[in-house]
Amino acid sequence: MDAEASSFETSEVLATFLASTPLLSESWRLCSIANTTARGSFVSDLVGDVGYIAFSGIQMAGSSERSCRNLVPLESAGNNLFLQQNRLNEGEEPVKVDEGMLHLFLSMYVSSSFQEQISALMERSKSIIVTGHSIGGTTASLCTLWLLSYLQSVSSPLQVLCITFGSPLLGNGSLSRAILRERWGGNFCQVVSKHDIMPRLLFAPPTLSLAQLHSLLQYWHFSMDSPHFGKLVQLRDEDKAELFRFVLFHMEGLAHAGEGTSLFCPLGSYLFCSEEGAVCVDNAASVTKMMHLLLMTGSPSSSIEDHLRYGDYVGKSSVQFMNQRSFMQADLPETSYEAGVALALQSLGIDSQQSVTGAAKDCLRMARRMGRTPNLKNAELAVRLSKYVPYRAEIEWYKASCDKSDDNMGYYDCFKLRVSNSRGEYRVNMNRIKLANFWNDLISMLDNNQLTYDFDRRDKWINSSHSYKLLVEPLDIAEYYGKGMHRVKGHYLKYGRERRYEIFDRWWKEKEERSRGREEYKRSKFASLTQDSCFWARVEEAREWLDSFRSESDMTKLDLLWKNIDAFAKYATKLVDSREVSKDVLAKNSSYSLWVKDYGALKSELLQHFPPQFPSFVEGGMVP
Amino acid sequence: MAVTDLFAGEIATELLKLMVTITKKSCLCKESAEQLISDLQALQPIIHEIKYSGVELPSDRQFQLDRLSETLRGGLELANKIIHSSRWNMYKNFHLAKKMEKLEKNVSRFLQCLVPVHVLADVLHMRFEAAERFDRLEGSTMRLEKQLGSMSIGAGGAWIEEAARKAEEEKKWMEDSLVNLGVGLDLGKKKVKEMVVVRDDLAVVGIFGIGGSGKTTLAREFCKDHQVRSHFRDRILFLTVSQSPNVDQLRVKIWGYIIGNEHLNPNYQISEYNLRYECKVATRTLVVLDDVWSQSVLERLIFPGCKILVVSRFKFPTIIKATYEVELLTQNEAMALFCHSAFGQNSMPLHANENLVKQTVSECKGLPLALKVIGASLRDQSELFWASAVNRLARGEPVSEPHERQLFEHLATSVECLPPKVRECFLDLGSFPEDKKIPLDVLINMWVEIHDIDGIEAFAILVELSNKNLVTLVKDERAGDMDSSCLVFITQHDVLRDLALHLSNRGPINRRRRLLMPRRETELPREWDRNSSQPFDAQIVSVHTGEMEEMDWFSMDFPMAEVLILNFSSNKYFLPPFMDSMPKLRALIIMNYSTSSAILENFSVFSSLANLRSLWLEKVTIPQFSKVPMILKRLWKMSLVLCKVSSSLCQSDVDLPQLFPRLSELTIDHCDDLVELPSSICRMSKLEHLSITNCHGLCQLPADLGKLEKLQILRLYACPTLKMLPHGICELFWLNYLDIAQCVNLSCLPEDIGKLQTLRKIDMSECSQIRSLPNSATSLKSLRHVVCDEEVSWLWRDVEKAMPELHIQVVDKCFNLDWLNE
């Protein structure tokens, strides 16, 4: 059975819901004001508790033209204006946006009127709607992005929603994913009319003649500027047709090739509107596909004119929800899901006879499936995690029993030397391997984008990976050194550490950063687990330094070795003093305790025999 | 004179017999009162006859006889009264019954006190006949007493107070001490309550435990509990079934209790009709069956419509679905109980030697009966006696005569009712060190060799012993059937082990069937040395020492020995030279209990073991085979556990088929230095079972494993570094069980697995990397059973469509911490 058969199709319902609120119509009202009165600028307004800021769709043609389609990293804006970039997965392209659009926003951002009005809005309203038509839409998106980053940094409860009308594409796929990862996807609502060519324009490669584009923009600008004034500028029909064919051709190619082949990528959720109603789609790939399918049903002239008809669409869909809907088709769908799909198609103005119907249906289905799969995977993984928790618990018990045993060694050394040579140690090793497999699987799923984008920001996973790392990595180190792998491959820290631990380190660091500024507690007892999971690898290296120090005769090398040893001793003392280590580190016969003993012996030896020869040793403040 | 005496004796007996019937009848039903009257009337003339028989009686005797006839006359009146009293006048009836009792007492007093004196007096005159009659008399007196006792219960109607009072008396001192250690008891009570009171679906609930673990105490406490009593509205019947019960009588008793008629005729027949219909109307009733010994008895005593609580040493898994296993006392509880019986107070007195007390308590292993008995026998004894007692306990010998009698004999009843073979097997268990887990395979190896049974039967015996609570099977979470026998361990309560030792250490040392060392000692027992001039008849020899060197052994002769068990804990071990003189040795078990593996010396002694059939080596370093001239021609089963094998098996030149030409079962378990199997293993044409389990270093299997044409069972459990199975596996025509569970890095099953036409079972649980099945899986036509994880089970469900007989089992993992304290 199709897994979707039992669920509901919500794209149409969502859109109807949105249209039933005053948000869309108010936004459009302000947009048209901005278009007519605030050329190249913006207007703001307060309706009830909701602040509106609308960017004009008519911008300085010259400035936007110059660098159109040139993607630059978002960071180039400087001043940490936008979200932090350290959250990228490795190998991912940096977040980039169109240079011209960025420039436009920045020029507005630095103006004092913008700053004043924004801060006034922020003071007086509970939520802010940022809106804009056409190119104003991209400015609005960037503004929203800035606003969200800013609000997050000051942890303000203010709500921000971005509603754009016929906005061109803004940035690359990384931008789209970064927004999802921050859970901001729902803050962007891009209204796109059925045939509007503007949002689709940037899917095509930049081979269009500038003159053509220029005249198109000019035509739109004039029409926006003075909607009631008649058409002063007219486009030639053959130009329209050529543009239409060109864009359609490239979109078709894109729709077949799939994600990632275009420079630009849609972001946030899209509201496709038609005469009949509207549907919401939020999956980037489905949005692209849907754009193509809808454009196919249009004509060259409608694709140009639609860019100017948002007012009509918004007005219609705002009252649409009050109309009684009924099925036109003779055969009623079998499931509620099918009914939802049919309603969505109807809202898009696609009737069942049209050739794109099947494809549009598939597209809606795909959107739903792709939206749901990562969530399901997440949930599945959580269930699997619960099955692996006992393995970790068993290792914890092993640690506890080693702490209690008479060997006084701690679990690191017990495991390394297989002290008891019992079935228990085999079991611990087995658990170690099983846990490693589980987390490796998880990482590979993450790499393949099978999980939700904000997976690595969920506390559940950060915390469980962290405690896994703290508990089990010492065992991995023990196995590494116990089996003599360091002689084959080199030291653990540099050559033996598994990638998963580095990833978990990063997750944890990011979490720490997010919660920075909170009160810090001082430990009054030793930690249950050593907070530096690589502590033992450092001990092993220090052990080697200490051993080679005794056999080394070259002065410069000795100096370096001593510096290393000294640095480690200081580091370890600091950890111990702040009680960041668990008590097994300090067990009487643990590697660390033995090392400290050796180190003390060496130090006193050195002091007795050749004190002046080790300047660093003396300078390092190690003279008692 | 003699004639009179003869008569007096004769008549007294007659009297008794009559009285018996009379008393019975008088209380059972009213109609019999008439009979009683006639009986008494018949008696009267006899007494008259004695009195006036013409023979002169001494005046005192005359007087006594008068009194008797007086009493009997009174009885007659009483009987008349009974007849005439109204049937419904309960009080009066009861009153009369009481009187009847009194009458009986009078009679019995006369018979008990006076008649023997009479008879004794007469014995002077006629010794010959009198002796015989005296016996008869005594026996019948006792019978009478018994019946009087049972009658008073039956007639009293308030038997429960009676029982409770009795219980109270018995356990009074026990309870005193349990006041502050009642935690375990309360917990047990709570758990049983849950099963009996809360869960309505359970008709039969059991309480189990080894002898002397406080089962009956728990059951009695349970019956006294207010909640229980109010739940059953005091309708609780406590019956002691014992080893040889009169089942019919018990049945009648229970039935009578259920239907509310407690005076049923003992010969009453319970019909099917009764069972089916009448018990439905009965109110809630609890029947406690204490001390049940056999399943057939239990089956007959179970009535529908009432709750039954079975108290037994044995488990009856087929009948009883919910059981509570009595837990042994915790250290503190044990200490308190011991102190109570040894010092009369609940904590250790200041003057006591703490060390000795603690040692003694720990020897008892939390068994209440042992604590009680040993404590009592050490009461007021000198410290020297205590020390020797500790010593004796450690060797499994009884501390004192009461200890032996009360504890061992109490426990021995469990053993005595076993069939002879099972009993022998139980006694064999004494050959293993205390508090250690014994691998199931070791036991089976041993039993197969000495009791001439096969593995399956040996396993069945073990299950029987376990059902009788004489051993405990400790199963790994996966273990279930014979296939996973290597995951099962056996533990035994120390007191039971002591019992086994005690029972097998009877008789002169050279004649014993088992020559055992009860605990670890630095040298062999001196007793052995002293008797070593004579050959020992022992079939099983078990030695438990530390490190042994050549000098530590002395020459002994074991012409009959078939099993040799060498337990030790050290890093070096010199194999005993007397292995030379064991021509019949069939099973050799070498177990090292230290933490590091031991180096065996004198390995050359193996060359003389021509009859050796099974070999178990644990925690030893296996020497390089090429250096040791050992060819074990008859060896068919070899197990290497926790061994270092790199110098022997990992050598490429090792020629296994030449060394072990008949080997059919090879087990390598927990050997982490096993990286690769020698390729010569593929030429072992007799190999049927191959188990390579928990070998964390094993990287790959030899490619031509498929040449093992007789292989039936292949277990590769928990080899995490094994990445793939060789394709040769698919050539194993006779393979019927494949276990690759927990091979967590195994990425797939071989593509041609469908060729395994006889494969019956696959265990692939926790193979998390296997995410697909080869297409040929559908052609595994003999496959019946798959054990796997939930993720993979969906793949098998698809296969199942083609093979409807397939049983897919998704394992539930269960976790415990037993492995921590091995």
TrEMBL record, chain A:
Range of residues in the leader sequence: none
Domain named Fungal lipase-type: residues: 92-203
Name of the protein this chain belongs to: Lipase-like PAD4
SUPFAM superfamilies reported in the protein's UniProt record: alpha/beta-Hydrolases (SSF53474)
A Pfam family annotated for this UniProt entry: Lipase_3
Assigned GO CC terms: cytoplasm; nucleus
InterPro entries attached to this UniProt entry: AB_hydrolase_fold, EDS1_EP, Fungal_lipase-type
Example of a GO MF term: hydrolase activity
Keywords from the UniProt entry: Cytoplasm, Hydrolase, Nucleus, Plant defense
Gene source species: Juglans regia (English walnut)
Residues in EDS1 EP domain copies: 393-604
Subcellular location: Cytoplasm; Nucleus
From TrEMBL, chain B:
Coiled-coil regions, chain positions: none
Statement: the UniProt record of this protein carries the keyword ATP-binding: yes
Record-annotated RPW8 domain positions: 1-149
InterPro entries: Apaf_helical (IPR042197), LRR_dom_sf (IPR032675), NB-ARC (IPR002182), P-loop_NTPase (IPR027417), Powdery_mildew-R_dom (IPR008808), WH-like_DNA-bd_sf (IPR036388)
Alphabetized GO MF terms: ADP binding; ATP binding
A Pfam family assignment: NB-ARC
Record keywords: ATP-binding, Leucine-rich repeat, Nucleotide-binding, Plant defense, Repeat
Gene3D superfamilies: Helical domain of apoptotic protease-activating factors, P-loop containing nucleotide triphosphate hydrolases, Ribonuclease Inhibitor, Winged helix-like DNA-binding domain superfamily/Winged helix DNA-binding domain
GO terms (BP aspect): defense response
Source species, domain of life: Eukaryota
Family of the protein in this entry: Belongs to the disease resistance NB-LRR family.
Protein name: Probable disease resistance protein At4g33300
Annotated organism of origin: Juglans regia
Gene name in the database record: LOC109010302
